[in-house]
């Protein structure tokens, strides 16, 4: 994942994230069958005590090509998941129960998983069923907004906080079916894959499925087809205008990076403890706000999180364990472009661009821990706000210098934009786009490589 950006001394943090695709049911791209397995998810929210607030959800998953192990996060970047508040999953094959051996594994200081090993039988579909509890009184967290959170406008959360997934790296076609009978008649449901019951536009790996978001209830919504947004809670201004702005920026990003997902979703919810945070997700992102959030702040946040969804990090995801040592890359690029691209698109003015740049430079060059080396950042990230901001601030200024170095080395024929586009194109083509990079902050090496390895950018 990618954490974030405590805003000037606050406890605020933003989590950046991973990947994913979306598309409405009956998409023409779905017409031809693909040589991949399928993973079907059915979600049935319920209101056990009849007070109008969803307090539990039945989850049913069927995998056509199951592996012999399944996994679920128990701790995701310090966020406790529904793993501590769910029934034991029942595994069945052809309606017969399948025994599972349970194991827990600590991935790093901030991430842990539970594993279920089931008897082998890859040829037959396997189903998993369990119930998660949603606590309406769950205390707010100043952490990435993964956890399922429920209230009067419905519930929302990241799939990785409640979904058991195959413990493999195989991409599968994904379907999500919602059963909203227990919710009020006007309730709607959506996910990073789209609005209502959906099929994924492309096969998704488990890490990409975990990095989707779900929301159901009566959120405010903007739906422009390829771009949609939904948010729970009230902003201090008309949220619809902000989301229309985000939709324009989304179109610009697609043109700039020369590729855009078939659909893109934005999910917002309030968090009084941690407004102005966000997580980048599969073809989507999620953010938090409260009544004090200004439009200018949220525009910067939306531009930042949307950038994560387009670029991600050195690898495919920013949500992996041990990802903090490469946060300088994903967060640095996100901060660099969060002001550059809206400004170039004419979606923010000169003053807003300079405010953002000066906020970064001011915080970095006055940071008492400015000398902290990159390899010490993972260790101090959660312990000290001054360390936590370093990948963002140093990273973005590093990319500004890299851009200048590439321009200087190429007589202004090449620049950082071309380098990033080339990396993304190589990754889309299945190439080893990480190859030219090492996890070392060293501008001269990068500039030299950039001018040779990407001579045609
Ligand atoms: Zn970020």
Kindly describe this structure.
The protein has 457 residues and is an alpha+beta fold. It has two domains: 28-311, Immunoglobulin-like (Sandwich), CATH 2.60.40; 323-453. Helices cover 28% and strands 25% of the residues. The protein contains ten helices and 22 strands. A seven-stranded mixed sheet has the order 6-5-9-2-1-13-16, with no helix packed on it. Strands 3, 4, 7, 8 and 12 form a five-stranded antiparallel sheet that branches. The chain has a five-stranded antiparallel sheet with strand order 10-11-17-14-15, with no helix packed on it. α3 crosses α4. It starts with 37 loop residues before the first strand and ends with a helix. Residues 1-34, 432-445 and 453-457 have low confidence and may be disordered.
Structural class: alpha+beta
Rg, nearest Å:
22 Å
Q: Could you estimate the helical fraction of the residues in percent?
A: 25-40%
- Please state roughly what percent of the residues sit in beta strands, choosing from under 5%, 5-15%, 15-25%, 25-35%, 35-45% or over 45%: 15-25%
The small molecules bound here are: zinc ion
- Pick out the low-confidence regions: 1-34, 432-445, 453-457
Biggest beta sheet summary: 7 strands, mixed
Mean of pLDDT: 85
How many domains would you count in the coordinates?
Answer: 2
CATH top level of the largest domain is Mainly Beta
Adjacency order of strands in the biggest sheet: 6-5-9-2-1-13-16
Report the CATH architecture of the largest domain.
Sandwich
């Amino acid at each position: 994942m990618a954490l974030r950006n405590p805003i000037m001394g606050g406890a605020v943090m933003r989590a950046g994230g991973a990947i994913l695709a979306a598309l409405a049911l009956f998409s023409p791209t779905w017409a031809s069958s693909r040589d991949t397995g399928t993973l079907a998810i059915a979600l049935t929210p319920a209101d056990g005590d009849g007070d109008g607030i969803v307090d539990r959800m039945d989850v049913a998953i069927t995998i056509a090509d199951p592996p012999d192990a399944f996994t679920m996060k128990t701790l995701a970047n310090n966020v406790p998941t529904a793993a501590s508040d769910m029934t034991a999953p029942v595994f069945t094959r052809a309606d017969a129960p399948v025994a599972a051996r349970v194991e827990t594994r600590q991935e790093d200081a901030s991430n842990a998983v539970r594993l279920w090993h089931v008897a082998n039988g890859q040829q037959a579909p396997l189903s998993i069923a369990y119930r998660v509890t949603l606590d309406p009184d769950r205390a707010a967290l100043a952490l990435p907004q993964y956890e399922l959170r429920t209230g009067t406008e419905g519930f929302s959360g990241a799939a990785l906080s409640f979904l058991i997934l195959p413990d493999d790296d195989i991409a599968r076609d994904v379907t999500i079916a919602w059963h909203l009978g227990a919710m009020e008649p006007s309730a709607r449901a959506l996910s990073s894959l789209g609005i209502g019951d959906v099929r994924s536009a492309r096969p998704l790996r488990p890490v990409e499925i975990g990095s989707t978001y779900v929301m159901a209830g009566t959120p405010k919504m903007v739906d422009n087809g390829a771009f949609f947004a939904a948010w729970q809670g009230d902003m201090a201004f008309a949220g619809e205008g902000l989301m229309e702005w985000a939709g324009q920026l989304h179109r610009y990003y697609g043109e700039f990076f020369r590729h855009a997902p078939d659909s893109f979703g934005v999910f917002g919810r309030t968090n009084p403890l941690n407004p102005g945070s966000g997580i980048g997700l599969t073809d989507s992102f999620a953010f938090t706000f409260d009544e004090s959030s200004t439009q200018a702040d949220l525009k910067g946040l939306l531009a930042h999180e949307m950038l994560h969804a387009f670029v991600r990090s050195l690898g495919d995801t920013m949500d992996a364990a041990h990802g903090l040592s490469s946060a300088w890359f994903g967060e640095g690029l996100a901060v660099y472009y969060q002001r550059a691209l809206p400004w170039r698109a004419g979606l923010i003015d000169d003053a807003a661009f300079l405010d953002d740049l000066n906020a970064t430079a001011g915080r970095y060059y006055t940071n008492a821990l400015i000398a902290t080396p990159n390899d010490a950042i993972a260790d101090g990230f959660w312990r000290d706000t001054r360390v936590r901001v370093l990948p963002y601030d140093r990273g973005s200024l590093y990319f500004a210098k890299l851009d200048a170095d590439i321009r200087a080395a190429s007589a202004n024929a090449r620049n950082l934009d071309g380098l990033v586009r080339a990396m993304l194109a190589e990754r889309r083509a299945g190439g080893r786009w990480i190859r030219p990079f090492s996890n070392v902050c060293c501008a001269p090496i990068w500039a030299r490589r950039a001018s040779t390895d990407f001579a045609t950018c």
